[in-house]
Write a structure and sequence with these properties.
The protein is of the alpha+beta class. The protein has four domains: 32-54 and 172-251, Ribosomal protein S3 C-terminal domain; 63-165, no CATH class; 267-352, Signal transduction histidine kinase, dimerisation/phosphotransfer (DHp) domain (Helix Hairpins); 361-505, Heat Shock Protein 90, CATH 3.30.565. It contains twelve helices and 18 strands. The protein has helices at 3-59, 133-142, 153-165, 178-191, 214-219, 244-251, 253-314, 321-352, 365-377, 401-418, 447-452, 474-484, and strands at residues 63-68, 75-80, 82-83, 86-87, 92-99, 105-111, 117-121, 197-203, 209-212, 222-225, 236-242, 361-364, 385-390, 396-399, 422-429, 433-440, 488-493, 498-505. The strands form six sheets. A five-stranded mixed beta sheet has the order 13-15-16-18-17, covered by helices on one side. α8 (321-352) crosses α12 and α9 crosses α10. The longest helix is centred in the middle third of the chain and has 62 residues, at 253-314. It starts with a helix and ends with a strand.
Length: 507
């Protein structure tokens, strides 16, 4: 993959991730604002319901007076107790009264000072004729049109009874029992499953304030005011509340989790795609590096064989047997090298296809390792040394001699090429396993190379140089063979040495 194309894909994936995050953050913010407004509305309704219920209960115990003025819609509210059938205020004169049921009586009275008509709810009143003024009072109470007002006594009594029992009439009081209001608010909030910390503040028409939970009122961010029509003019009842974020979070937990899963899924898929693209890019680089190295490795023996044949043909006119033998041996060695490289490539293809079958036989592991050490000692330079150590004389194991010996030779050969001058091979026998270590004092690899050293075709990058032979197949082949013998291989690094450690089952 071209570097420019890879950058374009990287920028595109990054942009998609950022846009996805931005959309989800915006969606959650708008959802939070909508839920916040919904919570305020629900608290508002709960407060109004509590106020209505408060006045409803209050109306059941008190006489309710509606002072009706000639201007439509203008009313003055007053409240007085009824005791033993008498009106508590001396200014009121009874015009008419009637009995609705055994426990509820309605009386029509007139205020001698204001010449206004009133409705009185109280005990022990007798049923008499209902006067015409009741129709006007009923009009103001129900806000109906004139043609919808009942024209007979029974209908008027029924409507007035309902209005009184539901406390639709207004009640005049300079103060409220906030404790009772608080109980009713708690009941309403619990019914709506709203869990908030709140405080209440009532302000009467004279500006005097009464509060519950003053600390919450001082620190609260959100508040709402009762819109109940039963509150006296110029008075107000406010509710201040906190911890609304927790309440909103609980209500929107499902949506938040869904949003999180969606974002995580999109980002996860894009990152997985980026990982695959990156792996393909690395494989392409490995392929190019492999082709370059194979070309170099094959050119050397081919050039040597060509030179030997040319020498036999052009420079051996005397048919010197010694020269001919020398050139033939040179060509034979190079052909053997070519054959070895071809076999390694074919072996790698076999390992990939899982067609490789081991021919296990019982052999002495110590003998195989000693042979491998001696074979490699004959090929190293004078400044390098290989030592062998074991804590047992003879150890019989079931192995494929050919492949296992090649695997060990690959590790030792790797230490000779990449390691330091001192190479140490050690065998340790324990009760349940055998440990083989190939240690050298060369420069340690980085963590990145350590994790990839057993990957197929992987070679430690050295630019476009070919001073180290090989295709990056040896350690991949070794790892596969060891694992087919039910063993493990790992690379251990420290500041002073590199250690390839093999563990095999004992028995």
């Amino acid at each position: 993959m071209r570097k420019r194309n890879y950058k374009i894909i990287l920028y595109f994936i990054t942009s998609v991730i950022l846009i996805t995050l931005g959309i989800q953050v915006y969606w959650n913010y708008k959802n939070y604002q909508a839920s916040k407004q919904q919570l305020i509305n629900e608290v508002q309704i709960s407060l109004d319901n509590a106020v209505d219920e408060y006045f409803t209960e209050l109306a059941k115990e008190n006489a309710v007076f509606i002072m009706h003025d000639t201007m439509i819609g203008k009313t003055v509210r007053n409240l007085h107790k009824m005791e033993k059938g008498f009106i508590a205020h001396s200014n009121f004169k009874r015009i008419d009264s009637f009995k609705i049921n055994e426990s509820t009586k309605i009386s029509i009275v007139k205020d001698s000072n204001t010449q206004s008509i009133h409705i009185v709810k109280g005990p022990d009143l007798t049923k008499d004729q209902v006067v015409q003024q009741q129709k006007d009072i009923l009009l103001h109470l129900t806000q109906r049109q004139e043609d919808s007002i009942p024209q007979n006594q029974d209908s008027i009594i029924k409507v007035l009874s309902g209005l009184a029992s539901k406390a639709i009439v207004s009640i005049t009081q300079d103060s409220l029992k906030l404790g009772k209001i608080n109980e009713l608010v708690q009941k309403e909030l619990h019914r709506k499953n709203i869990n908030i910390d709140y405080g209440l503040r009532f302000t009467n028409p004279f500006g005097e304030k009464t509060e519950i939970d003053e600390n919450i009122i001082k620190t609260a961010v959100l508040q709402t005011k009762s819109k109940s029509s039963f509150l006296r003019r110029l008075s107000s009842l406010e509710l201040f509340f906190t911890n609304e974020r927790l309440t909103i979070f609980k209500k929107n937990l499902g949506g938040i989790l869904l949003s999180f899963v969606l974002v995580a899924s999109v980002i996860g898929c894009l990152l997985f795609l980026l990982r695959i693209i990156n792996q393909q890019k690395q494989l392409a680089e490995l392929k190019n590096d492999l082709i370059s190295n194979i070309t170099h490795e094959f050119k050397t023996p081919i050039a040597t064989i060509s030179a030997a044949l040319e020498a036999i043909q052009n420079f051996n006119t005397n048919n010197d047997p010694e020269k001919t033998k020398k050139y033939v041996e040179m060509s034979s060695n190079q052909l053997g090298r070519l054959n070895t490289m071809v076999e390694k490539i074919l072996e790698t293809a076999t390992l990939d296809s899982e067609e490789l079958q081991l021919k296990l036989e019982e052999m002495d592991l110590i003998t195989i390792l000693k042979t491998a050490v001696e074979k490699n000692m004959a090929t190293i330079s004078e400044e390098k040394t290989i030592t062998f150590e074991t804590n047992t004389e003879k150890t019989m194991v079931n192995i494929d001699v050919f492949h296992f010996e090649n695997a060990i030779n690959n590790i030792i050969d790797n230490a000779i090429k990449y390691g330091g001058n001192r190479i140490h091979v050690a065998v340790k026998k324990a009760k349940n396993n055998l440990t083989i270590e190939v240690i050298d004092d060369g420069i340690s690899l980085s963590k990145i190379h350590k994790e990839k050293i057993f990957d197929k075709f992987y070679r430690v990058p050295k630019g476009n140089t070919h001073d180290v032979k090989g295709f990056g197949i040896g350690l991949f082949y070794t790892k596969t063979i060891i694992e087919k013998h039910r063993g493990t291989i790992q690379l251990l690094l420290d500041n002073n040495q590199t250690n390839f450690k093999i563990n095999l089952p004992n028995g």
